[in-house]
Amino acid sequence: MIASKEEEVLEALRSVIDPEIGLNVVELGLIRNLAFNGNNEVKITMILTTPFCPYGPQLIQQVRQVANSITGGGTQVEIGAELWDPSMMEEGAGGDWGLF
After folding, report:
1. For the chain, domain boundaries
2. How far apart are the first and last CA of the chain?
3. CATH number of 5-79
4. Cα–Cα distance between 52 and 43 in angstroms, integer?
5. What is the 3-state secondary structure (H, E, C) of 23-92?
6. pTM value?
7. In what order do the strands lie in the sheet with 42-46?
8. Distance (Å, rounded) from C-alpha 47 to C-alpha 74?
9. Alpha-carbon distance 9 to 84, whole Å?
């Protein structure tokens, strides 16, 4: 089965790890939306675990680079207005924290 571009990008983004938490941006639920246009470009909406995350710029840059490696086109990363909370994590991802 051939994966969609969205699935490919999301799988690749699992390599972007939040250094403070030790989980990837997909597990944490930080990737909120992917929107592709006809030119192989993707707009990614993501949030950070805290509004002033010290690793925010690094995470945004890594997300952009990883997405570009899959799409071959331009990637725009936009920070969403949602506030992160642990319920956004993938099922089972918070187990090591004793959250779920």
Report:
1. 5-79
2. 32
3. 3.30.300.130
4. 22
5. CECCCCCCEEEEEECCCCCEEEEECCCCCCCCCHHHHHHHHHHHHHHHHCCCEEEEECCCCCCHHHCCCC
6. 0.88
7. 31-36, 42-46, 75-79
8. 20
9. 21
**Six-digit token pair at 99?**
């959250």
Quick check: 28 and 21 in contact, CB under 8 A? Answer: yes
Tell me if 28 sits within 8 A of 89, measured CB to CB: yes
What is the phi/psi pair of residue 81, to 5°? -90, -10
Give tens-digit pLDDT for 59-69: 999 999 999 99
Running DSSP on this structure, what letter comes out for residue 19?
A: T
Q: Give the integer Cα–Cα distance in Å for 88 and 32.
A: 9
Segment 33-45, tens digit of pLDDT: 999 987 889 999 9
